[in-house]
Amino acid sequence: MDTKKVKAYGTEALGQDLKELDISRRAVLENDVEIEILYCGVCHSDMHHVHGDWGKEKYPLVPGHEIVGRVIGTGPGVTKLKIGDLAGVGCLVDSCRTCESCKKDLEQYCLNGSTVTYGGYDKHSGGHTFGGYSEKIVVDEQFVLKVPLNLDLAAVAPLLCAGITTWSPLRHWKVGKGSKVAVIGLGGLGHMAIKLAKGLGADVTLFSRSKSKEKDAFDLGADAVVMSTDKNQMDAVSSKFDLIIDTVPYIHDVNPYISTLSIDGTLVLVGYLGGLEPILNSVPLIMGRKSVAGSLIGGLAETQEMLDFCGEKNIVSEIEVIRMQDIKQAYDRMLKSDVKYRFVIDMASLKNQQ
Ligand SMILES: NC(=O)c1ccc[n+]([C@@H]2O[C@H](COP(=O)([O-])OP(=O)(O)OC[C@H]3O[C@@H](n4cnc5c(N)ncnc54)[C@H](OP(=O)(O)O)[C@@H]3O)[C@@H](O)[C@H]2O)c1
Ligand SMILES: [Zn+2]
Ligand SMILES: [Zn+2]
């Protein structure tokens, strides 16, 4: 297989800092699009992978799945995009395309295992995939999104993961005008959840531990803010919400939020992966026909729907643009919830590195 050397930023072992390294990308195949990456968002998942939070990783690990850039090459079979177009790539770069999930546009739940943008099995190279902390990426056109032209490109990048991960549950649980939605945690996912739920016409409440974020939440469109550490404030929203999107990345007690769900309400976990502690109490679930659910990113059609919606409603992420070389400080700040509200890497900094 023909390959090209591409400059990237990644880590070669657990515990090592990210640094500049070379990776190989396949030369453009029949249905491939080659994209010069202009911006890449920094998702908390990138940090989970680098820190080994989710088990054994494949190295070198090149994170990044909030990718926007410009098309610089196309295979002869490509019809959707042409050289010069803007393009986006999210968390998936392939799937089997034939299973029941794929046939329903739910590639994220591919029964044969979708190919994630980094650390996934790359059927072309036989190795693993490399993400967007790099100069270029080559992706089958079916997994490339069209980017609205009216939006700030750097601020579009986080829509490719933070946007779709919150959009998908909002759509699945049919949020619309009059729905009462709450969001737990004001970070990358949380701030997009507020904007998108507001865009769909919902009444939106933020649950946060951070008093300092209260004003920002209102500026982002929240109708109310509840300090999750204040029992009186929690009691005041008892039985209120149709849908709660829980974006908290680490283990936390979900039980206090269940009592804020209305009858038939659902709390959907999108952040933390793993066993819940303390134990989830079934009594309020049974007494109120309430659900606790999970949700993973979104399919390609749904991602395009979200991008088009953002184009129409002028919705983008709130971002802080950083250089590739500042990624360690960005991770350190993300760990302290000190991000307003998504870091986005200007990939020109990788090219211009001394
Ligand atoms: N399901 C999916 O498909 C999917 C997709 C992308 C990301 N994720 C995951 O979603 C999670 C959130 O990602 P993100 O990029 O939005 O992260 P983020 O920007 O770091 O935001 C997380 C927010 O959660 C709150 N928080 C952080 N630590 C907490 C703790 N120990 N206890 C309670 N609250 C805490 C903070 O909000 P306050 O300061 O307001 O409390 C923080 O701003 C990560 O675990 C990520 O891996 C899942
Ligand atoms: Zn992500
Ligand atoms: Zn499939």
How would you describe this structure to a colleague?
This protein folds into two domains: 3-161 and 298-351, Medium-chain alcohol dehydrogenases, catalytic domain (Quinone Oxidoreductase, Chain A, domain 1, Alpha-Beta Complex); 162-294, NAD(P)-binding Rossmann-like Domain (Rossmann fold, 3-Layer(aba) Sandwich), CATH 3.40.50. 24% of the residues lie in helices and 27% in strands. It has helices spanning 44-50, 100-103, 153-156, 162-172, 188-199, 214-220, 231-235, 255-258, 283-287, 300-313, 327-335, 348-351; strands at 3-10, 19-26, 32-42, 67-74, 86-89, 92-94, 115-116, 136-140, 145-146, 180-184, 203-208, 224-227, 241-246, 261-269, 291-294, 319-323, 342-346. Strands 3, 4, 5, 8, 9, 16 and 17 form a seven-stranded mixed beta sheet that branches. Helix 4 packs across helix 10. The protein is globular and about 60 Å long. The two termini are 31 Å apart. The mean pLDDT is 97. Bound molecules: NADP nicotinamide-adenine-dinucleotide phosphate and zinc ion (2 copies).
